[in-house]
Amino acid sequence: MAKLHVITYGCQMNEYDSERVAGLLRGERYELTDDEAQADLILVNTCAIREKAEAKVFSKLGELRALKARKPELVIGVMGCMAQLHQETIQQRAPQVDLVFGSPAIARVGDLVQRVRRGGRPVLETGEGPLVKITARPPAARRLKAFVTVMEGCEKCCTFCVVPTTRGRERSHPPEAIVAEVRSLAAEGCREVTLLGQTVNAYGRDLTPPTDLAELMARVGDVDAIERIRFTTSNPYNLTSKLIRALRDLPKVCEYFHLPLQSGANRVLERMNRGYTREGYLELVDRLRDAVPEMAFSTDLIVGFPGETEADFGATLDMVERVGYDNVFAFRYSRRPGTLAAAMPDQVADDVKASRNTRLLEVVNRVTAARSRRLAGRTVEVLVDGTSRKNAGELSGRTRCNRVVNFDGQGRVSVGDLAWVRVTEALPHSLRGTLVERPEEAACLSK
Ligand code: SF4
């Protein structure tokens, strides 16, 4: 079999796409290799969300130029968001690239590679394409957790974001196709699924008949072998009472909610065209905590958005304290070509962005460590997913609120088991604990 090597940058959606491509190419008699020097075909799955992400890709393509010089029959392909956004630039700056295709063209990857092999000249395939549910995946020993895409694209117009351009308009996969995919994953030993979408809580409104994420999660929850359901990424704009009730009432849905805020200042939220205010966001968090008291929140925050003042930045720090996040993904604003924000006056200087990012992370580390400490002495349900990175004699897994726990359970529980662990130590980014029988008053216990 020919050898395929896939290099993935960016989000979970890209990881999912890379798996799908590898699954489809297996049908073309390509098997995955971790060694790019062994590969007959190398695909680079790209991210265009920030300038830095793009720079990484071009430096990688530079490295691959040398490999291609030694192995002219090697086919190099670029896929993902940069392919959709910068196809000509890629061809100009990286002439060693034989194939450029966007995510809408993934279903035809086999044909595209054959066209390169037959034609011997670059193949370019970007633009919109039909929405296809691809469930092909490379064989895996045991897939305990899996991402499942439920929709593609986004119709929000956040002024800093390229996703609507790179991934197209919002399109949902039919619930039957998603449940079928979850069933086949469960048959392979999967116990936890993460439902993926750019604005996953807008799922289903474009379908006939329309449906929504609450109904979908109820159907996924009916798949017996699945123990846990997660979902990402949500937008506060589409958060409904029906979804909040589902989070309260569906036992398999975990108490972890990734809810990007982006900024704590209403002035900036308006310039970002986010469609909500800080007050509206806080009200949503309160309603969610009323419904699910154990809910852990994570978020995305951008510092240095054009026009962001010191007071605006202060409002962002204040929101981190008020919400009490368990995790925060902090980003410095990156000017993206073709976005409205890129043309805005009052671009913030890089050194100001850097200092605000550092100050934000100081507050984040303090707040998330306090959130971690609240679990000390309590007992948590853990899905065992392997051994501790630091100590092979220990097992490791995640709580329902998505915290890593390392504990002493070797020989008593195994990978794939749900175990009860009493937290003996709360570290900034993980917990340590000891295996116990199921206690009555456990925290993060299933509902
Ligand atoms: S909702 Fe998310 S994916 Fe959609 S435009 Fe806004 S930031 Fe981009």
Concise description?
By secondary structure, the chain is an alpha/beta fold. 34% of the residues lie in helices and 22% in strands.
Report what the structure shows.
- The chain is of the alpha/beta class and 447 residues long.
- The protein folds into three domains: 2-125, Rossmann fold (3-Layer(aba) Sandwich), CATH 3.40.50; 145-373, pyruvate-formate lyase- activating enzyme; 379-435, OB fold (Dihydrolipoamide Acetyltransferase, E2P), CATH 2.40.50.140.
- Helix content is 34%, strand content 22%.
- The protein has 13 helices and 19 strands.
- The chain has helices at residues 12-26, 51-70, 81-85, 87-93, 109-119, 163-167, 175-187, 213-221, 241-249, 266-271, 278-291, 310-323, 350-373, and strands at residues 2-8, 30-32, 41-46, 75-80, 99-101, 123-125, 145-149, 151-152, 171-172, 192-196, 228-232, 256-258, 296-303, 327-332, 379-387, 395-399, 404-407, 418-426, 431-436.
- The protein has a six-stranded parallel sheet with strand order 2-1-3-4-5-6, sandwiched between helices. Strands 15-16-17-19-18 form a five-stranded mixed beta barrel. Strands 7-10-11 form a three-stranded parallel sheet, sandwiched between helices.
- β5, α5 and β6 form a beta-alpha-beta unit.
- Iron/sulfur cluster (SF4) is lined by residues 154, 156, 158, 161, 163-164, 198-199, 235.
